Amino acid sequence: MKLAKLISKMIPYAFSASIVACTVLPSLVLAEPASKAAPSLPVIGINTDVQGDTWKKSAIYLQYVDAIRKAGGVPILLPPMDAEQLRAAISRVDGVLMIGGDDYPPSLYNQKQHEKVSLMATERSDFDMLLAHTLLDDPSIPVLGICAGCQALNIASGGELVQDIPSAHPESKVQHSSPDPRKNGFNKHNVALAADSKIATALKTDKVSVVTSHHQCVGKPGNNMKVVARSEDGLVEAIEAAGPRFVVGVQWHPERDFDTCRPLFEEFVKQCAERRAKQTASQNDPALSSAN
Fold first, then answer.
1. Would you tell me how many other CB atoms lie within 10 Å of the CB of residue 64?
2. Alpha-carbon span 200 to 193, nearest angstrom
3. Closest Cα to residue 59, out of 122, 104, 125, 124?
4. CB 212, CB 152: distance < 8 Å
5. Is the dihedral angle over the CA atoms 185, 74, 149, 240 positive or is it negative?
6. How far is CA 210 from CA 150, 186, 204, in A?
7. How far apart are CA 217 and CA 220, in angstroms?
8. Nearest CA to 150 among 2, 251, 53?
9. CA dist 233 to 166, 221, 276, Å?
10. How many whole angstroms separate alpha carbon 8 and alpha carbon 10?
11. Angle CA(77)–CA(90)–CA(110) in degrees, nearest 5?
12. pTM
């Protein structure tokens, strides 16, 4: 501190000694403000894919992580775990992003498996259903589902899927899949949004061109789920839970076109931050806690 006071005399008086100390001794002075600021950032849990046979691993494309990070959230991965562990994890996050992947077993929505279905690892599908049910049972936690994540929310709420769009809708001229994205990139198509939807409100438009890579989609919407977006062939492209709570599922991949879809991620993170603030206020005020 003597060094800080000495240097403070050598610079304009507009600078305080504390600022000089931060400049001279950042490892000592910045530690306290940083620890106070960190809890204000919303923590977003993200499920993972499961890959491999004998040596299995949890995996995730960094675009999902980067989208949450760039939108102002702190991404935390949620690999498969049991119900007790999941309850503990959910109690520590402010929202959850459910990612894309392979197909869920059609038996989950009482259908016989189509030959075009490519099942994801059982460890993942079992955990994702546990996660989706847990999230839907929670009265307040914000949820964003992308591609398979959208489908998981629909299945968990009692809905059904179209197992293979080309087989069920051969008349469709919309290219929903992207057969070889590494070589040819991802296809895009237009989606019409319900004007009063949370997605349209966030993006400030009722039409958007989306990055697409799927062969399945929502067929019958689940309980309390409403269709809020369709592609030009009439197929479902997004669902939302009825009411004010942010439970949104999109069939496209907004993380692969972050510049266009940034407002959607920012709105999701904002909802998570608001929930965090309410819970913090409730914990600090016994009256609010008892009211909840």
1. 26
2. 6
3. 124
4. no
5. negative
6. 15, 10, 15
7. 10
8. 251
9. 12, 17, 40
10. 5
11. 85
12. 0.84
Contacts of 75 (CB under 8 A, 6+ apart): 44, 46, 64, 65, 68, 69, 97
Q: Which two tokens stand for residue 199?
A: 């997605």
Instruction: Give Cα separations from 153 to 27, 48, 116, 217, 242 (angstroms).
Output: 45, 15, 22, 12, 13
Q: Which one, of 138, 140, 168, lies nearest residue 236 by Cα?
A: 168
Q: How far apart are CA 224 and CA 159, in angstroms?
A: 10
Q: For residue range 169-214, what is the model confidence (pLDDT) as tens digits?
A: 999 988 887 777 667 778 888 999 999 999 999 999 999 999 998 9
Given this model, what pLDDT does residue 39 score? 61
Question: Domain 41-291 belongs to what topology?
Answer: Rossmann fold (3.40.50)
Domain ranges within the chain, ordered by starting residue: 2-33, 41-291
String of DSSP letters for 232-279: TTS-EEEEEESSSS-EEEESS-GGGGHHHHHHHHHHHHHHHHHHHHHH
